[in-house]
Write a structure and sequence with these properties.
single chain, 381 residues, alpha/beta, Rossmann fold, six-stranded mixed β-sheet, 11 helices, 19 strands
Length: 381
C-alpha cells in the first residue's frame, strides 16, 4: 500500500485580512434555537439563537440590522451599516462558578471543555487539516489573545499540567504551558491523537483538550467583553477574519475567485468539510477553511457497492472498519453500526478519501451518529 503523508505545514507570509460585513448575513439555523423574530431590529452582538445542548454557545449578530427573512435553512439579516453594539460584559471580574460559565455561554463560548476539573489541559496548536493555516497564524499574530484565553481556561479547570502541542520544530510558547512538538502530518492534528501523543493514553478521563481557535475566541471574549462574532478562514492560502453569517458568494467575490460549473465548494477542510448547497450559505463559528474542488480533480462520490478492497481499514487511525459501519448505516442498521465501533470514529475522512469505489463513507458514519442521537433524544422526551 502506498503511504501518503498529508502535511500540515504552511508558509505564512501575510497577516490576517479583515473582511467587512456584507449587506446581508445568513445565519444557519441548523441545531439552533432561534431567539430573534422576523422584522426584529438587532444590534451588533445581540443574541440571535441559543444552542440546544446545556453547554453550547449562543449565536450573535455580527452586524446591526433587521431580520428580514427566516426559512428552513437560514435567518437573514439585512445590515444597515451602523455601529450600534451591545454593552460589554466585565468577564474578568467574575468569580469562578456557574455564573461565569453561563455568561461565557451567553457570549458564544462552548463551555463543555471548561466545565469540571482536569489534571492535564492540552492546547491543540496544530493546523486542523492540510491547506488550513489558521492555528499557526493565530499563534504567530495574536498570541496575547490566546494567552488571555488560556489564563481563563486554567482558572476554570485548575490543571496540574498544561501542554501546548505544536508542529515539531515550531517555537510557539504560552505562559504556564510546556510546549511539545508533534510531527505535523494529518490526521495527527485530531484531538484524540494529540492527547495520545501527549499523555501516552487513549481517551484519558482526567484530560481536557481545546484548540488554539477555541482559546482565541475565549480570549477575545475575556478581553473585550463582547461575544464571538467572527471566525478566521483560510481561503486560497491566505487567512481572513470573516463576520459570522457572511455568504460564501460574498467571500469568493471579495477574494476574486469564481468557481466554474460542476466545481464543488467546500466549507471546512478538504477531509472533514461539507459541500455547500448554495453560495448564499453563511459561514459559522466552527468553519476555518473554504476550498474549491475543480470538477475534473477527483471522481465523483456515489452510492456504489463496497468492493471490499480494505483501503479504508488500512488508513483508519481509529482502528475500526469503516466499510462495515457504512454498510450498516446505509441499510438503517444503526445499532449494529454502533456495535462495530461507530463512536470510536474520529471522522477524519481518510476512509472516504482512499475509497476506490468513491463511497460517501464519512457521510454514512455521520448519518448513523445523528440518527442514533435523535432516536435517543426522542426516547428521553
Amino acid at each position: 500500500m502506498l503511504k501518503i503523508h498529508y502535511s500540515l505545514d504552511s508558509g505564512l507570509n501575510e497577516s490576517i485580512t479583515p473582511i467587512d460585513a456584507p449587506k446581508v448575513l445568513n445565519i444557519q439555523k441548523r441545531n439552533l434555537v432561534l431567539q430573534a423574530k422576523k422584522g426584529q431590529s438587532v444590534r451588533r452582538g445581540e443574541i440571535l439563537a441559543k444552542h440546544p445542548s446545556p453547554f453550547g454557545g449562543a449565536y450573535h449578530a455580527a452586524a446591526s440590522g433587521k431580520v428580514t427573512a427566516i426559512n428552513e435553512h437560514n435567518l437573514t439579516i439585512s445590515c444597515d451599516g451602523g455601529d450600534e453594539t451591545i454593552d460589554a460584559v466585565d468577564v474578568r471580574s467574575m468569580g469562578v462558578g456557574k455564573d461565569l460559565l453561563r455568561t461565557l455561554q451567553d457570549l458564544g463560548i462552548d463551555v463543555a471543555p471548561y466545565s469540571g476539573k482536569a489534571e492535564t489541559l492540552v492546547i491543540n496548536g496544530l493546523n486542523p487539516e492540510p491547506g488550513i493555516s489558521v492555528a499557526q497564524q493565530l499563534l504567530m499574530d495574536e498570541s496575547d489573545i490566546i494567552q488571555a484565553g488560556l489564563d481563563m481556561a486554567r482558572k476554570l479547570l485548575t490543571p496540574g499540567r498544561t501542554v501546548l502541542a505544536v508542529g515539531k520544530g515550531e517555537k510557539f510558547k504560552l505562559s504556564g504551558a510546556e510546549t511539545v512538538g508533534i510531527k505535523p502530518k494529518y490526521p495527527r492534528s485530531l484531538d484524540a491523537l494529540v492527547v495520545r501523543d501527549i499523555t501516552g493514553r487513549e481517551f484519558p478521563a482526567d484530560t481536557k483538550i481545546v484548540s488554539v481557535m477555541d482559546l482565541h475566541d475565549l480570549g477575545r471574549v475575556v478581553l473585550t467583553g463582547l461575544p464571538v462574532m467572527d471566525t478566521v478562514l483560510t481561503i486560497d492560502g491566505r487567512n481572513y477574519r470573516v463576520p459570522l453569517g457572511t455568504p460564501i458568494r460574498h467571500l469568493l467575490d471579495t477574494v476574486g475567485i469564481q468557481p466554474s460549473s460542476g466545481d464543488i465548494v467546500v466549507l471546512g477542510g478538504p477531509f472533514r468539510g461539507e459541500a455547500v448547497y448554495s453560495l448564499d450559505e453563511g459561514v459559522t463559528k466552527n468553519d476555518y477553511g473554504l476550498f474549491i474542488i475543480p470538477s475534473s480533480r477527483f471522481p465523483k462520490v456515489q452510492d456504489a457497492p463496497c468492493i471490499n478492497c480494505g483501503e479504508c481499514v488500512l488508513n483508519c487511525p481509529a482502528r475500526v472498519q469503516p466499510h462495515l459501519i457504512s454498510r450498516c448505516a446505509e441499510y438503517d442498521k444503526f445499532e449494529m453500526a454502533e456495535k462495530h465501533g461507530l463512536h470510536s470514529c474520529f471522522e477524519c475522512g481518510l476512509c472516504a478519501f482512499h475509497c476506490f469505489a468513491r463511497r460517501p463513507l464519512l457521510q454514512y458514519i455521520r448519518f448513523a451518529k445523528a440518527q442514533l442521537k435523535a432516536s435517543r433524544q426522542t426516547e428521553q422526551a
